[in-house]
Amino acid sequence: MNVHIFSSNEELNEAAAGLLAATLHTKANAVLGLATGSTPVGVYEKLVELYKKGSVSFKSAKTFNLDEYVGLPRDHSESYYTFMNTRLFQHIDLPAENAHIPNGNAEIVQEECVRYDQMIEQAGGIDIQILGIGHNGHIGFNEPGPTLQSATHLVDLHEETRKANARFFDSIDDVPVQAITVGLGTIMKSKTILLLAKGSDKAEIMHRALRGPIDPQCPASFLQLHPQLIVMTDSEAGRLLK
Ligand SMILES: N[C@@H]1[C@@H](O)[C@H](O)[C@@H](COP(=O)(O)O)O[C@@H]1O
Predict the structure, then answer these.
(1) Of the four, 15, 113, 129, 188, which is 20 to 30 A from 123 by CA?
(2) What average pLDDT does the structure give for the chain?
(3) What's the pTM value of the predicted model, to 2 decimals?
(4) Where does the chain have alpha helices with state H?
């Protein structure tokens, strides 16, 4: 595991975007695993800057997002589909057909989960997976529990997660109760994982995830087992990792 603690958000965003750009330079048809949440927003902004400067192209890349709410219309302002389009996809040259997000409105969710994993597999797996972390240690929407699931699956969101995400909605009642998430197995098969964390409210969970026991009650703790884990934090989120 490589842990990088940055003194400013700017440096963190630049380093993370630089790593993604480097992946695309080495392999133009790289498969990127993308995340939502507030943490990667600045990284996407840097990627857009790099693209506009002509330093990186996504035209042969493929992307797979980690998760999507169930039952939220695709064009809802808080769907992850809208998030990715407004934050990244509409600003770069990634072909629309190469950008994948689970369909949270699929008629048969189970079939959608199987289809999603098959598409990742057919693309050759994820070359680099960006992850944020929830306050309870969730990655994607893999919530803590007695067991974790390997494949893409339907998940009941924990109250804590819905509360944390309520800031993006008018009220907590508007936050969906379920989501589709890529499973731990799919995440762990990524060739490289880039875990990002920002802010003092993430310090404790980052310590538990990276220095504590490997425990399904903290899904991110399984990342300790990954041979190519790169961690980038700001000084606050990385405070307990030094
Ligand atoms: N499903 C997402 C995760 O992919 C994200 O990493 C996490 C943290 O979000 P944030 O970066 O806003 O703290 O919560 C969300 O619920």
Answers:
(1) 15
(2) 97
(3) 0.96
(4) 9-26, 41-52, 80-87, 109-122, 159-165, 184-188, 203-211
Residue with tokens 């098969």: 189
For residues 141 and 68, what is the distance between their CA atoms, to the nearest angstrom? 9
- Identify the active-site residue in 68, 112, 117, 143: 143
ipTM above 0.85, yes or no: yes
Is the C-beta atom of 134 inside 6 A of ligand 1? yes
pLDDT digits (tens, 9 = 90+) for 200-210: 999 999 999 99
For the chain, domain boundaries: 2-138+148-234
CA distances from 138 to 25, 107, 183, 196, 218 (A): 31, 26, 11, 13, 7
Task: Confirm or reject: Cβ of 98 under 6 Å from ligand 1.
Answer: no
Is 10 a known active-site residue? no
What's the CATH fold of domain 2-138+148-234? Rossmann fold (3.40.50)
| 39 CA from centroid of ligand 1 (Å) | 7
